[in-house]
Amino acid sequence: MEKNYYVCTGCGMLCDDIEVDVENNKINKVYTACRIGVAHMKDGKESAAFLVDNKPVDETTAISEAATILKNAKNPLIFGLGTSSNEAQKLAIELAKKTSATLDDASSFSLGEVIEALLNNKTKVCTLDDVRNKADVSIFWGTDPSDSHPRQLSKYAYFPRGTEKQRGWEEERTAICIDVRKSHTAKICGNYFFQIPPGGDAEFIDALIAALAGKLPKTSYNFPPKRILELANILKGAKFGVVFAGRGLVYSLDNLEPLIRLMNALNEKANFHLVPMIRQYNTRGFNENLFKETGYVNSVKFEDGTVKHGPEYSVVESLKEKTVDAALIIGSDPFSILPRSIAKNLLEVPVIVLDPCETLTSRNAKVYISTAIDGVESGGSAIRMDGVKVDFKPAVETKRPSDETVLKKIMEAL
Length: 414
Description:
Blueprint: E1 19-23, E2 26-31, H1 35-41, E3 50-52, E4 55-56, H2 59-72, E5 76-80, H3 86-98, E6 102-104, H4 112-119, H5 128-134, E7 137-141, H6 145-148, H7 152-157, H8 168-171, E8 174-179, H9 184-189, E9 193-195, H10 201-212, H11 225-236, E10 241-245, H12 247-252, H13 257-269, E11 272-276, H14 283-294, E12 300-303, E13 306-309, H15 315-320, E14 326-330, H16 334-337, H17 340-343, E15 351-354, H18 360-363, E16 367-369, E17 380-383, E18 389-392, H19 403-413
Parallel strand pairs: 5-6, 5-14, 7-8, 7-10, 8-9, 10-11, 14-15, 15-16
Antiparallel strand pairs: 1-2, 3-4, 3-16, 6-12, 12-13, 17-18
């Protein structure tokens, strides 16, 4: 009997083997998903909310008010979209063009640089399915998937039996963790945990590159050279290796040059690939959709038919320098994720929020529209953390409109 599977949009892995029990249009049981996925799949709400100045209005009034704000703005900011479908993201790009907006997402202060490097073919890539079937060495660098992506090790990287790795973690797979703290993932990796000080990643990379070349590795923080040499020997023997790059690694580096050098050095000795550990389910989708349109993955400004790009067009700099006069926030909460000294500047401009959840940002918004949860209440497509396109369908019905629907109506109102 064929089973009815759903896609979990709880993180960038987009697990496509989720089963649910639905009763009275509500998900009451979720199977196969991790703890994050279970909570995410059960978070749907049947009723919709449309607020202007925190007062209930009808949908038409909310859309009209949002369109008026964008129409009157000279330099609006559109930010978020990591939890929106490809279809909604493409509409947001068109809206940014139409309103001469600054457009950005959280990848500008996260893993966007890694995704841009992959899209520009600066190093080798692979899919998560390749990892499950072929990988014998996985490095988790500056990331703790046991907490952030709980099925990463069990579904792909360490525990499963793949087509070419039938004996799994007991005999054919090695998991390595490089981090500043002994995380849950580090404990699973056991003796293959390498604890380095905060900000020490670049030095460790240089030492590892030296070890790969057969030289004595040295660090200013006196990491045992013997351990680095042992790690280098393991990596040299990899038939199919993967580096899972997390925010901890990216935040530690001034730029990606050391990481790209390491990937090149690894591929001179073995066969290694790079996969970014993306948290929001369609951050990579936003980066790829914007890249196809502009050649950039984030931080752009549309103006007079041209595209400008640079750090000054990131959400952080735009709010810090107060260069925007309105904001459309989609599926994000700047008041929670940005420093207060920067986020508070949103209080000085009219803000529109599209989000399934009530947030600190939505409470301070001029217009708030509670939208459907993609993959739970609305369908579409997304790009998985490894670049694979995934289509998803809703599990339940809702009166809440999708991001795509709302953006279409705003475009029509303009």
